[in-house]
């Protein structure tokens, strides 16, 4: 994708302007904000309507370049319906903006009240009359039934606003009935009770669409996809979202919902040919690849091509930072987020990810500044609460951190970062039950969150339920196949359950992943301790040592000794190759507790085989390294004693041989 021509840029500008207006009319404010930010990130030379001259200057009389308002002619039927109901639509929209969602929906879809709830007749008539069996009839609410004629007379814009208001009202009541976070009513107990009614109305509307001679606009299809996705009918939801983006490509909310339904990169590649061929599909592919942790060179190239069109887009810069974040290139990610913060200090979006980066890098002063800045901007945003929670977590004040993560979830129960981070804090507090529940909720929100799967595995390992831990670690490794730490966890679990051969294969997979993927300076489990990236062709000595131990359990001592030797070899590394900047420079890991354990095992192994000289060399090296010193000294004494004993036995055997020889002669 190259640079757009002037006509293409003008067309793109018109489409984005229409997207801002259309999304705002339908109260899809997040999608409208996304389109508006993308619109303003176009190069100024293509958007400027004149120069920065004074208003009364003669230069200001030049007419601005004309830009088409719409890319396609509007349906005449829809235009007539919208013109007829404009006053009611404005009333409904003001109700929505005032968060009176039921009142907004009732403007176009009036419902019925429960019988007996309000009665203006005499008090006696309000009494319940006895039934034939002598029992009073209980007043029960009746469901509002909408005839096809009542909804067919509405424009698609009005019907969408009414049904969307009903959906939001149902979500609001669901959150209210759920009560406290991780309480008895929280989780899958409460449901949005408006979904069935919305689904019925939309099904009737779509069934009569062709007979009425009307065409879909993409908005009701988008809402129906949301309802299907909420009902776990994801296959049909994908098709409706695809239909929605074909009819109206610039509704970013539909692309986001579609992205959330993909679990693997293969699913994305399979569905891509069914998508419209435009710039929105290009942006969607980069965004979904980032969500699926596909930080490849191709994705970076595609992102660079889009940034050529939108050079100042904060959204695209954030995607670049998240790509670096997923590959644990924290320095690059932190630099991009820092630049974004300087250019727009009041932008709260994705600050929770920035705080995670600062936490892992141990930049406590920057994290404190970020928490202060976010709190001053808007303290009641979930991202702000996560930033403050990370700040208290780095100070080891885990109770306060949990309090802020709970606050974030009170504001938005589907905020993924808060569930995962709260699980980390519960692990630090040794509250395994709450940690497991938090991680489960994170997985419910987003099945692609490998941190939550890994956290579940770690928590079950603490409970010594290794079969459960193995399942969750395998799920995490399937999401991040090039993360060596995840494969190490899988190998450890296989070793715990007695499947040593599978454990060896998992550890070898970790070695392969380590050669492809730099594990970075931090752990994805939420602590500052992690597997450091070795690089330079160095293999992780801990993985090699664990492979050797598993071979020992299989009684394959020759392979075990070979991997122990390989573990020790990582201390020095290659003396000269392309990884070393100076010939002769050592690029190894140096002496570590793991290499010292391997050296101790080899020293005992050589001692058992009778190779006392090699065993003595290894034991003396241990004494010099300062690790396993006492065991090494004890082994040296045993070696010397064995050598002295064998010398004495050899001398005694020689004397006996001489005596026998001379005794025979006499």
TrEMBL record:
Q: Which InterPro entries match?
A: APC8 (IPR007192), TPR-like_helical_dom_sf (IPR011990), TPR_rpt (IPR019734)
Highest taxon in the source lineage:
Eukaryota
Query: Could you state one GO cellular component term attached to this entry?
Result: anaphase-promoting complex
Q: Where is the Cdc23 domain?
A: 11-321
Xref: Pfam families = ANAPC8, TPR_16, TPR_8
What is the recorded name of this protein? Anaphase-promoting complex subunit CDC23
| Chain segments carrying region Disordered | 51-73
Q: Which organism is it from?
A: Glonium stellatum
Where are TPR repeat segments found? 314-347, 382-415, 416-449, 450-483
Q: Which UniProt keywords apply?
A: Cell cycle, Cell division, Mitosis, Repeat, TPR repeat, Ubl conjugation pathway
Q: Which GO terms describe its biological process?
A: anaphase-promoting complex-dependent catabolic process; cell division; positive regulation of mitotic metaphase/anaphase transition; protein ubiquitination
